[in-house]
Amino acid sequence: MSIETFKKYVKKNRTNIMIKPKKLVEEVFEQSPFFQGDQTYFLEHCTEILYYLREVCWERYLVFERELTSKTSEYLISSDRDFMDTLQMHSEDPKKIIADFLERYSEHLFELSKSHTNSRRSRAGKEFEAIIEILLLRTGVVFDNQGVIGSKLFKTDRLGKLVDCVVPGVAEYSEERRRCALVSMKTSLRERWQEVIEEMTRTGAHEMFLVTLDAGITKNTIEALSSHNITLVVPDDLKLNSYNEYNNVYGLTKFLFEMIDISNMWKKRGDLSTEFYKNRLLAIETRLKNVSKDYVREPFEEYIVHCELQLKS
């Protein structure tokens, strides 16, 4: 079997076997012991919840990955008549069978390993984003995520590559940027923090939050990010153990409280136009299109009521 044919097979079956990252996070969350917790509970246990969801998602992902590896190995063997003959010849010598298999398909297994590695990296980031979104939702924070940022509602600001979500939303950002929060999420920074600065310069964004799990961010990097009005956000234990001396590095709990304050501030404003509330309702409609889960809809539906009352007043 050619390598290209094999790679196509792996890609197709990865799609069929693997559950999408966001859906996996949702399933783990809905089965978790803290699913019924209220806002206070999520604020008090946000770091614990973050780690729990990541760990359980990883364990379940490995189950799917092993299934893919097994199915792929079976496919290689069953597609090779010569190797099937080898199996019969050495049926009583499993070591010989394994050695022959590894030698015969070393390139194929290398490609499978690369596919696993790339999938793990990609999924880790997407799962992290989904978890942070859940924490925002369950602490009562409204936001627009990539689904809305990439829409025509943000055509003049081009924040799609830079930002994962905007609190409380794109309508508010268009109205008054400095009273909103741009949030980007990266499991680790390495040298990618420079990309964030470059994108901010390109788009004209003035400040943002960068949520990460990175425990090895250097002082120079922290200062460079701070000089560009980028506030790092890390789990509370990392804040305490690694970054406690830096006021411009937030713990996750402090970040969530600030997002709540920003979200609530917009609900209290009395100087916004009818056009603003119409745009906000449109953004929420886009945000909730195809969303059925109550815990996702709840904070936005409360905002819908608020906007409709403002339009009537």
Q: Which segments are poorly predicted (pLDDT under 50) over 5 or more consecutive residues?
A: none
Strand content: 5-15%
Give me the strand/helix succession: HHHHHHHEHEHEHEHEHEHHH
> Strand arrangement, largest sheet?
1-2-3-4-5-6
Main pleated sheet: 6 strands, mixed
| Individual helix count | 15
Ends apart, CA distance between termini: 70 Å
Briefly note the CATH topology name of the largest domain: Restriction Endonuclease
Assembly state of the chains shown: single chain
Q: Choose one word for the global shape.
A: elongated
Radius of gyration: 24 Å
In total, how many beta strands? 6
* The first-level CATH class name of the largest domain: Alpha Beta
What portion of residues is helical? Answer: 55-70%
Structural class: alpha/beta
Number of domains: 2
Protein name: Restriction endonuclease type II EcoRII C-terminal domain-containing protein
Domain Restriction endonuclease type II EcoRII C-terminal: 108-247
InterPro entries: EcoRII_C_sf, Restrct_endonuc-II-like, Restrct_endonuc_II_EcoRII_C
Pfam families: EcoRII-C (PF09019)
